[in-house]
């Protein structure tokens, strides 16, 4: 699903109104009905006090329509107009009159702190104060109102966006913004819903299709895309029945050091479970018995050194090399890595200590084969490209870095971001149970397994990250977040592939 800016969404609204021959009031009615239905589906006519805080722009207009529709369905609704200016939007005014025709319980105006209403923790609060039109931080009593609503402990549903959250920048630390339990957003999600600095304000997210013009949505260009099942499925390559293991490539996993052979084992197993035809592992000697015993399906070659990598003499022609997990940063290993980079032409996947070695020896960057994949977590990224001021600057810096070196970069996190060919793909699968030792090693193996089956680096990264998350979701459902360990993610890759095609 594409992610658009506020300006693009406004353009989509205007175009839709023109092409569909409707008024903006009708579009607002359509959008609000979808919200009302979602609320009604969940509340099931429960006798809960619903308090709707409406701004005076179109987000507030949405709130007024939702209020009217809920009242018509018999809900107990109280509307508060957050009167931050006299500049009411046309659709706010129209819907204000319509609401007054529906109920005798007219909206109350909030003009300063003295007007803040009581909010009970059992109330259901709807935040329709600001949406994508917010253009400066909330000041004075408006900011205090937002803090007051947050502190009420009532359930908060945000319409389109939590008020105070900008669509194109990170708020300052002192800024006030709604911390929603749930956000119902119109047509496409906003980028800030997925950034580490802003995602916590959104709560659970649902995107409502309000029927904006299809042609515009499909032709309008954007650098950001959210990856759900639909997008992942389109990347999947079915296996031919008339095929053999040679058609699915040979992945070579290189890494490990004394005490860290498990990481290579996890990556190797993940590459096999993802469908690589052959998988070999190159490790220090101490890992030989461990690997051969734990994973008879893999072939094992060892370094001359007992405890670390010193001379990577693999004499193979693998489809892809996955390097770095558990490798350590011994100077001899750095030297061996440099030689490996110099003699490898196909794209490589570099993870963990491989990334740290590059960070500390930036001259290695120039030997990276084109389209190679780097899979840092935020700390590894920072070592690689330096600090950033906020998440927007981070995205800019990573874009510049990946484009100047012709790389694909997988920035791991609760929403993993894949950067490639100037675009940013934001993963929407996975869960906090995956914050556990070795789950990154598993991801590297999955992506290497896909590249070995002739997926491009970018497609392998996007699909691999999605499948990794889905596998983790399947484990969490059966086992809880806490009990999830990374080996479970490998074991459930089969279920993850099947889930791609389940409804
Ligand atoms: N047909 C459509 O377009 C549809 C739109 N839809 C809905 O419209 C929403 C966007 O509505 P919107 O553009 O009216 O902006 P909104 O978020 O209500 O607020 C803007 C107002 O706030 C003001 N302002 C800004 N910052 C401020 C601050 N810090 N402190 C104080 N004031 C501040 C700013 O005024 P200014 O003072 O800058 O002139 C302006 O008056 C969108 O999120 C969705 O919910 C849906 O119904 C679908 C159909
Ligand atoms: N809260 C979370 N939600 C979803 N995925 C997560 C979460 N926390 C971690 N992950 C995923 O788990 C993996 C952790 O990788 P990494 O930090 O490299 O771990 P390790 O070094 O232990 O292998 C990444 O793929 C990341 O996206
Ligand atoms: K809002």
UniProtKB/TrEMBL annotation:
Residues recorded as binding AMP, renumbered to this chain, are: 412-416, 440
Reaction catalysis annotation: (6R)-NADPHX = (6S)-NADPHX; (6S)-NADPHX + ADP = AMP + phosphate + NADPH + H(+); (6S)-NADHX + ADP = AMP + phosphate + NADH + H(+); (6R)-NADHX = (6S)-NADHX
A GO MF term: ATP binding
Keyword annotations:
ATP-binding, Isomerase, Kinase, Lyase, Metal-binding, Multifunctional enzyme, NAD, NADP, Nucleotide-binding, Potassium, Transferase
Pfam families the record matches: Carb_kinase, YjeF_N
Q: Which cofactor does it need?
A: K(+); Mg(2+)
**Any single GO BP term:** nicotinamide nucleotide metabolic process
Q: Quick check: keyword Isomerase in the entry?
A: yes
Q: Which residues bind (6S)-NADPHX?
A: 58-62, 131-137, 160, 326, 377, 441
Can you tell me which residues bind K(+)?
Answer: 59, 127, 163
State which Enzyme Commission number(s) the record gives.
4.2.1.136, 5.1.99.6
Cofactor remark from the record = Binds 1 potassium ion per subunit.
Q: Which segments constitute the YjeF N-terminal domain?
A: 9-218
- YjeF C-terminal domain ranges (all copies): 228-500
Role of this protein: Catalyzes the epimerization of the S- and R-forms of NAD(P)HX, a damaged form of NAD(P)H that is a result of enzymatic or heat-dependent hydration. This is a prerequisite for the S-specific NAD(P)H-hydrate dehydratase to allow the repair of both epimers of NAD(P)HX. Catalyzes the dehydration of the S-form of NAD(P)HX at the expense of ADP, which is converted to AMP. Together with NAD(P)HX epimerase, which catalyzes the epimerization of the S- and R-forms, the enzyme allows the repair of both epimers of NAD(P)HX, a damaged form of NAD(P)H that is a result of enzymatic or heat-dependent hydration.
Which HAMAP family does its entry note?
Answer: NADHX_dehydratase (MF_01965), NADHX_epimerase (MF_01966)
Which family does the similarity line name? Answer: Belongs to the NnrD/CARKD family.
- Known partners and oligomeric status: Homotetramer.
Protein name per the record: Bifunctional NAD(P)H-hydrate repair enzyme
Q: Which gene encodes it?
A: nnrE
């Amino acid at each position: 699903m594409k992610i658009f800016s506020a300006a693009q969404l406004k353009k989509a609204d205007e175009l839709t109104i023109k092409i569909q021959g409707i008024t903006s009031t009708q579009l607002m009615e359509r959008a609000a009905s979808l919200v009302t239905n979602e609320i009604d589906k969940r509340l099931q006519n429960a006798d809960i006090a619903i308090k709707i805080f409406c701004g005076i722009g179109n987000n507030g207009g949405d709130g007024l329509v939702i209020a009217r529709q809920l009242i018509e369905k018999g809900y107990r609704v109280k509307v508060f107009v957050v009167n931050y200016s006299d500049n009411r939007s046309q659709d706010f005014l129209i819907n204000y009159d319509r609401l007054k025709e529906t109920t005798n319980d007219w909206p109350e105006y909030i003009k300063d702190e003295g007007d803040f209403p009581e909010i009970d923790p059992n109330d259901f609060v709807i935040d329709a104060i600001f949406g994508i039109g917010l253009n400066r931080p909330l000041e004075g009593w408006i900011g205090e109102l937002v803090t007051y609503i947050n502190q009420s402990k009532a359930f908060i549903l945000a319409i389109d966006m939590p008020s105070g959250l900008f669509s194109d920048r990170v708020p300052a630390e002192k800024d006030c913004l709604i911390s929603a339990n749930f956000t119902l957003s119109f047509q496409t999600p906003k980028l800030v819903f997925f950034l580490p600095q802003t995602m916590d304000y959104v709560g659970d997210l649902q995107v409502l299709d309000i029927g904006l013009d299809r042609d515009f949505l499909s032709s309008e260009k954007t650098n950001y895309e959210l990856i759900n099942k639909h997008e992942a499925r389109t990347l999947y390559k079915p296996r031919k029945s008339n095929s053999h293991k040679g058609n699915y490539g040979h992945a070579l996993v290189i890494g490990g050091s004394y005490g860290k052979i498990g990481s290579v084992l996890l990556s190797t197993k993940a590459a096999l479970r993802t469908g690589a035809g052959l998988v070999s592992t190159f490790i220090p000697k101490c890992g030989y018995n461990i690997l051969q015993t734990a994973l008879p399906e893999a072939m094992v070659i060892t370094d001359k050194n007992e405890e670390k990598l010193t001379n990577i003499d693999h004499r193979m022609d693998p489809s892809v090399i996955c390097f770095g997990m558990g490798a350590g940063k011994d100077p001899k290993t750095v030297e061996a890595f440099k030689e490996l980079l110099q003699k490898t032409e196909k794209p490589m996947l570099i993870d963990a200590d491989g990334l740290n070695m590059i960070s500390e020896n930036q001259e290695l960057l120039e030997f990276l084969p084109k389209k190679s994949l780097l899979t840092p977590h935020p700390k590894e990224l920072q070592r690689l490209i330096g600090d950033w001021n906020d998440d927007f600057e981070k995205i800019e810096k990573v874009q510049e870095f990946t484009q100047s070196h012709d790389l694909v970069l997988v920035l791991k996190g609760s929403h993993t971001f894949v950067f490639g060919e100037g675009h940013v793909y934001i993963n929407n699968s996975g869960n906090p149970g995956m914050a556990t030792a070795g789950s990154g090693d598993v991801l590297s193996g999955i992506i290497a397994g896909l590249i070995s089956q002739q997926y491009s680096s970018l497609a392998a990264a996007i699909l691999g990250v999605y499948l990794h998350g889905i596998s983790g979701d399947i484990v969490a459902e059966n086992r809880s977040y806490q009990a999830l360990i990374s080996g479970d993610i490998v074991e459930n890759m089969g279920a993850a592939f099947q889930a791609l095609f389940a409804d």
